[in-house]
Write a structure and sequence with these properties.
Distance between the termini: 14 Å
Shape: elongated
Structural class: mainly alpha
Radius of gyration: 14 Å
Oligomer: single chain
Strand content: under 5%
Number of domains: 1
Helix content: over 70%
Number of helices: 6
Order of helices and strands: HHHHHH
Mean pLDDT: 92
């Protein structure tokens, strides 16, 4: 889940550097596979910024439902990071 959060944040930054999402994917074709996987996961047609925010909220909701130790959750909570910051790390 954290990997997809990182990819979504990357897609946000890359797409903001170009005139369109299509231009960004054309310039960085290796991102197309990730884009398609995220679309298959239900994010088809959603702007990357909205998808990243939704994904980060979903990570927090999922973390609240599981009881096993999650190292990345423990790190995030210990230093007060939000999921987007953790994804950048």
């Amino acid at each position: 889940m954290c990997l997809y959060a990182a990819i979504l944040n990357l897609l946000v930054q890359v797409s903001n550097s170009f005139e369109s999402r299509a231009d960004a994917l054309k310039r960085f074709p290796f991102l197309i596979g990730y884009h398609n996987e995220l679309a298959d996961l239900g994010l088809f047609g959603i702007p990357y910024e909205s998808a990243a925010a939704w994904w980060n909220d979903s990570v927090i909701a999922w973390e609240k439902m599981v009881t096993p130790h999650l190292p990345l959750r423990a790190l995030r909570m210990a230093v007060g990071m939000d999921p987007a910051t953790l994804a950048l790390l």
